[in-house]
UniProtKB/TrEMBL annotation:
<dbReference type="InterPro" id="IPR029057">
    <property type="entry name" value="PRTase-like"/>
</dbReference>
<dbReference type="Pfam" id="PF14681">
    <property type="entry name" value="UPRTase"/>
</dbReference>
<feature type="domain" description="Phosphoribosyltransferase">
    <location>
        <begin position="11"/>
        <end position="211"/>
    </location>
</feature>
<keyword id="KW-0328">Glycosyltransferase</keyword>
<dbReference type="InterPro" id="IPR000836">
    <property type="entry name" value="PRTase_dom"/>
</dbReference>
<keyword id="KW-0808">Transferase</keyword>
<dbReference type="InterPro" id="IPR050137">
    <property type="entry name" value="PyrR_bifunctional"/>
</dbReference>
<dbReference type="GO" id="GO:0016757">
    <property type="term" value="F:glycosyltransferase activity"/>
</dbReference>
<protein>
    <submittedName>
        <fullName>Uracil phosphoribosyltransferase</fullName>
    </submittedName>
</protein>
């Protein structure tokens, strides 16, 4: 299932507009904050879908019958670009366990790239909700590789993927690889360039959040 958070007009439109704008992108703090906001909105929407259990709460006046999450989810992000989006989700699921994957595009002299994954650490995910944050689904290749390795650790009770922007091709690739996943995404763009970048997109989310990286 795919939910595009900007299908109906909401503040997500404004946050995505600002992520795209070259005038606003010069403000790194604002760029990171807008990714964080999209993560917060996605977390709120995901929380509606997670199983709950009844709880009894003592107030100053009486006992109250409320609800809480049945199980805390596991949150995982793709380093480094995913950190602000991940932090937004963690702001809402603040008791969650967390995992991290270091994956990136490794370019050759012809600008062809492969996915290099150097690091993965994750808590137990068996029979727990798994939420994975990756801000941009361009080809979807890095996320697919990361998820394949994550799912070797265990089988989550449900799988949620959160992204800010994706290409139609990238979203389709992830959905086909993991048909059980619910994809929550800020916006979907039609085009993917020959070099595998989303157009109009927003540029490189990692560079815009943390500074331009060297190519090795």
């Amino acid at each position: 299932m795919i939910t595009v958070l900007s299908d109906e007009f909401s503040l997500v439109h404004s946050f995505v507009n600002q992520l795209r704008s070259v005038e606003i992108q010069n403000d790194r703090m604002k760029f990171r904050r807008n990714l964080e906001r999209i993560g917060e909105i996605a977390a709120y929407e995901i929380s509606k879908k997670l199983p709950s259990i009844p709880v009894e709460i003592r107030t100053p006046l009486a006992m109250y019958q409320g609800k809480e999450l049945e199980k805390q989810p596991v949150l995982v992000t793709i380093l480094r670009a995913g950190i602000p989006l991940f932090e937004g989700i963690l702001n809402y699921f603040d008791q969650a366990d967390c995992g991290f994957v270091a994956a990136y595009r490794k370019h050759d002299s012809n600008d062809y790239f492969t996915i290099q994954q150097d690091y993965l650490t994750c808590p137990e995910i068996e029979n727990r909700p798994l939420i994975v944050a990756d801000p941009m689904l361009a080809t979807g290749a890095s996320l697919v590789e990361a998820l394949k390795d994550l799912l070797k650790i265990g089988k989550p009770s449900e799988l949620h993927i959160v992204a800010a922007i994706g290409s139609e091709q990238g979203v389709k690739a992830v959905a086909e690889a993991f048909p059980e996943a619910h994809i929550w995404i800020g916006a979907v763009d039609e085009a993917l360039t020959e070099k595998g970048y989303i157009s109009p997109g927003l540029g490189d989310a990692g560079d815009l959040s943390f500074g331009k990286k060297l190519q090795f």
